[in-house]
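Reopening this one. Same input as before:
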Amino acid sequence: MYSSKFYHSRNDLRRAIEREEFRVYYQPIVALTSGSILGFEALLRWQHPERGLLPPADFIPLAQETGLIVEIGYWVLQQACHQMQQWLTAHYSTSLERISVNLSLKQFSQPDLIERIAQILVTTGLNPHNLILEITESAIMENSQAITTLSQLQHLGIQLSIDDFGTGYSSLERLYNFPISNLKIDRSFINRKDANYKNLEIVEIIVSLARKLGVNVTAEGVETTEQLAFLKKLNCENAQGYLFSQPVDNLAAIQLLKDRGAESLLGRDEDCL
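Same output, byte for byte:
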């Protein structure tokens, strides 16, 4: 059930697609060893004609329910890959390596997923190695062909990340079989104001597990210098969150790359490190 304040219909979403009201925003992913911008995560927003810029929580549930999330998801992927290719061509930063895009459960289950993604890479000219697809634990576990699909994506040269890790129900045995290159720690373990030792221990366990799997770790939702210092102490490789930057539009992302491409985003927090 959706509140009347934020209620939207399938037709509203369809019109938003036709009128090009959706926007892609980009949040930087920072390498904690250098403070440079390693990449961006592509995040969807809706520039509603009456309500202004809407966050995903206001319309993604309906998009998933109606199945429009598949079409919207491919649009986001197309936009993000195109934008990443432009950034790389412009040489704004020598540290920029990847663009991360989320795959929904419905999109991950599409029979033509591999073909559609391969076509987008060809159309945009983006090297597959510059793309990371983020898939939640639940999306993987609910798909009986998950390992096959992930292997096909990896064969294309795409990097794979388990998103919101720690909130699902991955068995360690299956996790070892997934061809992943990154684990993304869910923000609920990072940015809770009432964060306790148990949460911190979970983060430490995830980082340790990732090290044994030979994959990188990205912590999302980093908002304080204390959280940053803790992650660096654990040798967590990458992070993103409002401490570094909120999600921004393309022009602001370019400015970040120009201003910070060769300058550490950690510079303002050196005292805590």
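So the earlier flakiness isn't reproducible anymore. For the record, Residues 68-90 form the longest helix (23 residues).
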